[in-house]
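TA notes. Do not distribute before section.
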Amino acid sequence: MNGFTGQVWVLSLGAAVCALVMVRLLAVRRTAGSSLTGAVVLTLAVAAIPAVRGEPPHYVAGVALTAGGVVAVVWATGRSRRHRSARRSALADYEAGTAAVPLFAALAERDRLAAELHDVAAHRLTGIVVAAGAALRLADRDRTGDALRHADEAGREAVRELERLTELDATAAGFAEVDALAAAHAVDYRRTVDKAPAGSTEATYRVVREALTNAARYAEGATVRVRIEPTDDEDKSEQGGGERLFTVTVTDDGGTAVEPGLGTGRGLAGLAATVTATGGTFRAGPHGEGAGWRVRAALPAAPALPLRRWPLWRGTVALDYALVALAIALSLGASLLSADVPAPFGGLLPALVTVVLSGLHAVPLAWRSRAPGRALAAVLSALLLWWACDRTGWTQPPVSDIFLVYGWVELTLVHSVGVRLPWRRGLFAPLAVAAVGGLALASGSGITGSRTGAWAVLAGVLALPALAVWAWGRRTARQHERLRAADARRRVLLDGDADAAVSAQRLLFATGLRDTALGHARAVVAAAEDGDLRGVREEARAGLTALRDLLSGLHAGDAADDAPPPTVSGITALAARYGAVVRYAGARRPLPAAVEVFAYRTASALMAVGVTLTVRTLPDGVEVSGPAPAVPSVERRLRALADAAGGTLSTTDRGAVRVWLPEAFPWRSE
């Protein structure tokens, strides 16, 4: 019979080990929801065995608590393993892709300079051609004088703007510049928006300037209306971003084209890229029944950036709550497994007090990662309260036994304090644990003689392991700091390479600019000073032609065979290859390397021809949103990707998906 019992015990132990291995594998290989379901099912199955055998309810509850605590820790460690593996994979991709960062930074700078060149030179030179052409047709002396004065002023402005085009510290245009621009063109203008982010006001200026330039080219004599107004609700972001928007609308009722060949063919495309990069939408096309035209941009007025809260099963938070479950399981679960409950607690009232104190002693572990100092203070307060209740005889087992068995709770929090808090503030932790722990042990029944002396001796003995655990935490903190410093150094070197590539691109651009549009702009000024109106027009037209050729040259020779770097900035180059659009919202700032890679992977999974994606930088991470994929496997891939990064995937009522990726990654645990 004993041999049979031993075999049953061995088989049960083997089954338990296999079940725990299965839980860990699920946590490592599956998302939080599916693996957590498996862990709960296993716990219920274990608890069902004694229930089927007819064991008392307290015994079944003890089995459930004990099994749940062990399963929770195994599941949480598996989740941590999943996150660490995802981080290693992301960092490997980042290291492999950083070689392309300087190249694509140079390409992005080239595109920016090309857009600026088009906006600045085309606007000024087109106005000169239009005014000069009209004066030459009318052959009016006063009109000719006005055209020459305009050419002189506009030409000088073009020269100044082109000369400072490559400066790094150019100031973004605001609404005051938009007002002045509209007044200079004498259009029907109304603005009812007072404040907006700098990127939105700069985009507003560019939209209005390009639209007025096109109206002068192709709709001479038309009535032009410019409106800058708050948007209606139906104009909000398709991804449901929740930003407040305003619209910039420029319309004309049709007119006649001044002269053919004045445009570069890139103005509206450049505007669309500028507007979408700020988080807005852009449309341009025919308007009304005649030959009218409308340009309309919706831009962020005040982006709403809500903070995200992690679900309880994410990252270090999951491990914290798993430790809570383990502490409760080991304290209450083991006692409930006794055959004479509530005798181990000393009666019903002491049992209730013990249950409450056990919870107070365990629950603060949930704050281990976020507020370890407060968590330790709460645990020590619960231990002191237990000591006080023990002195009145309200609790069983005594507080000395509790500290001997469950002192790992205090030591766990001491380690967290060492990791999270500066040493001057954290040094109190091991000393406080030694003092309170010594008091708890000195109250035990086995102590004879002076309890005060025993408390002093026991506190001194406890101080040694407590200080050792705290020093271990400090060492872990220094390791984390070294890793962060190494990452910062790597980013500085990478940014330096990118800046060098950008500077080289700017130098190349400036060289081409001096030989083309800038030279013709100076020639326009010289012709205006000489009173040569025909020369003014020819030089301005030549400048526009040279501008078109320069822009075509700048857009040639893209790195079509090179993969974009797996970064947030690389998403723009990826979108260009798909014919998609990426919008950026929120304040752009450096992000951890792994976050950059996960954002890039998310955008890559959502990318399709013609879609618009939004990349929103939040105070606590980054969010990538876009139209929901039509293929279910893509959504499953997105969900797994978000889960591995410690983030979330959600859907909106507008048929879009959002993937939130936290900046404070869950694998940065002790």
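Switch to the second chain here.
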Amino acid sequence: MRSADTVAELVRRQWGDHRTGLRDEHHTLTHHQVAAGAAARAALLVDLMPPLPGGEPHLGILLDNTPEYPLWLSAAALAGAAVAGINPTRRGAELARDIRHTACRVLVTQRAHLPLLDGLALPGLRILVTDTEAYRELLAPYADARPGEARLGPVRPDSRFLLSFTSGSTGAPKAALCSQGRLAAAGASLVSHFSVGPDDVHYVCMPMFHGNAVIADWAPALAAGAGVALRARFSASRFLPDVRRFGATYFTYVGRAVQYLLATPPGPDDRAHPLRLGFGTEAGAVDAARFRERFGVPLVEGYGSSEGGAAIQRTPDTPTGAIGRAAPGDDLAVVSSETGAVCPPARFAPGGRLLNADEAVGELVNRGRSPFEGYWRNPEAEAARLRDGWYWTGDLFYRDAAGFLYFAGRTDDRLRVDSENLAAAMIENILARWDRVAGVAVYAIPDPAAGDQVMAALALREGETFDPAAFAGFLAAQRDLGTKMPPRFVRVTRELPLTATNKIHRVALRRESFLCGDPVWWCRTPGGPYEALTPESTTSLLTEYATHARDVR
């Protein structure tokens, strides 16, 4: 079957296909029913969005992962509208800002999320509440609609389709643009790369307001004619039962979700399931190996973003710990963000320790033609991404002599300790080897005099306690742990704070520093023993910060 030029074409292809296409705990729809439901919603959308001067054909979706979400995505594609995925963890003025910024004229939501909208200034917004009788009555007259009959305008590959808010936790989120053509091409690429077929079932448990679920899970399923199974919100305890119930073969993840799955009690039937592949980001080599050993499922680390400015593909010869090489057509380089010069290749000690992190780690840029389509009404953010004809990803990498790329964290996650640059992700990958931890986050806090100090938050496995001597012994045994990498402060917490997309909320951790409600251990001097941070030692530290006129947060 030839590749489709638009998402709308992929939706139309489902018409007449009576195999199971979409399921959750309570509903089962065939592919044909999905196409028919999308056609009905597209016809309704056309009637709800008459042409207005300056009015954008933008639809907001504030839903959990219910069948209504992919139905409205499909409807928007058919109608030539664009979808803004609205994050339900946002509140008040921030939530209203997201809806207004993306110029939504219609908002689709559910009763559980209606309280979030109380008191918000959203003039002119039409709100549809999917789990109500009024909604069903509104849709009923459009039951006989067919795909492609109702459109707001021409549907082309360059038609705007997604306004995906970036998952950054600082500043107002930016809405990255994605056209129908780019999403259709991304789905086709993953179908080819992972040999996805019509008999596969994609388990969508990451939130659909984020690109991970839509671009890497829903789009390839649509392109291959595969089934889709939904979990309203990610649940580690329901993961395997869902996979077995739905016959799921493929899923996407972020690193923290993998840690949650590994923290569930092991069972004798952990490998009794049809899963063949997981695709995602930031699982880390240690957790990926543990996952494959326990569940028998390989996790394929990828690299991409909602912006689509650069992509890395894994090949069979990719070394452990590396993401892969540049995707075809990309001219990727690791460069100094200060000088723009290409960083030298990474050099490794026999144990795998990176010997020249200070010069080898830099920002990943795409010097070739970038598929980045911009941000919605944010020229300043676009200018920051596109500089000197290059696309700057905002992510730290290093490259080995063979050209394989290794992720080293976000540019915001770089630490500078005693004038040496460190990448948080590299330290996290080492600390994750400790068999007592279920999750790790590494972040910078200010040094009292200058630069940064390394702080780590550790979420321990069930039944484990923090033993400072055992932790120090573990650190001493890690041959690739550089002398500046050991954490000066260790926060022991029950759970790591997460963003709405299940990524670790490092901004919150940095903000709390060692002035938090969890137990904190520290080294008075680098390389010394770990001891509990007491009120007296905290006071002494704060005095030291005050002496140098530095803020601890």
